[in-house]
Amino acid sequence: MRCHISLIFLSTLILTGASLPKTGPLPSDKPPTETQAEAPIPAPEKKPETPAKTDEEKKREPSADGGQGNEAPTPDPKPADGKDTGKPDDKASDGKKSDAAGDEKDKPADEKAEEPPITYPPVENENPVEYAKCVSDLKALGAVFTEAKRIDDGKGCGIDKPLDVTSVLPDVKLAPKGLIRCEAALALARWTKEAVQPAADVAFAKGTTVKTLNQASTYICRLRNNATTGKISEHAHGNAVDIASFTLSDGKTIEIQPRDEDGTMTGAFQRAITASACLYFKTVLDPGSDAAHETHLHLDVIERRNEYRYCR
């Protein structure tokens, strides 16, 4: 009987459109007990409520941007005058600069910029016509010399057609003998004949002549004033000679030294031959020019525009 009633009940539910629950046990064919019928349907489980946060806790709670909740962000440091320059921290910037400099310094040698090699001009060739005329004029003055082999010492040093000069005039020696270009040897011979000998005859006893030009330097491969940097010396081209003293026919030696205030005839002789040298040489440096020339006269025939002379 009970089974029949249950079937009728299910048929009624189906006809009226009722649906079975999606989950849960199927209806039992046994009637519920009194305890099950009276038991209340359990309420859905509730999570314990979180107690409300105090204002202090809200302030300490981290915000989405990583700062502190409602706390004002820490202001950027400002300079002493209170103005915000908006510039990055100097120390941090200096650190980056120093790091960059350190990186450049620590680069291997092969990665550093290489300095371009120094180029030197080749030894200048003599003009054949001018050279032949110079040699002819030098011989006519009675100079004693031999033609030497071409000199090329590299670094721009050398003489195309050097002369090994023993005497600039028949009775005036060059001691010691020296290698020099013909142009410089000819200027030295003419100066000695036309200026030095007449000055000696006037300054000293009548008939006194210069017998020897004592030279301190002719050809030598070096820079000016023996410096480690700078321009190459005219001595390295065979264009220059340094005269340290003169030996007179009476055996007396006149040394080159500072004589601007020397009121003797020796002082007058040195000043006279120094001034006259500017008529024969393009450069004349005496003890008054600088400390490097206090003991000699520097004479050279460097090429300059319009026959310009530098004498001091």
From TrEMBL:
Residues passing through the membrane, by range: none
Pfam families: Extensin-like_C
Record-annotated Extensin-like C-terminal domain positions: 133-312
InterPro entries tied to this protein: Extensin-like_C
Region annotation (Disordered) ranges: 18-125
Biased composition (Basic and acidic residues): 44-63, 78-115
Protein name in the entry: Extensin family protein
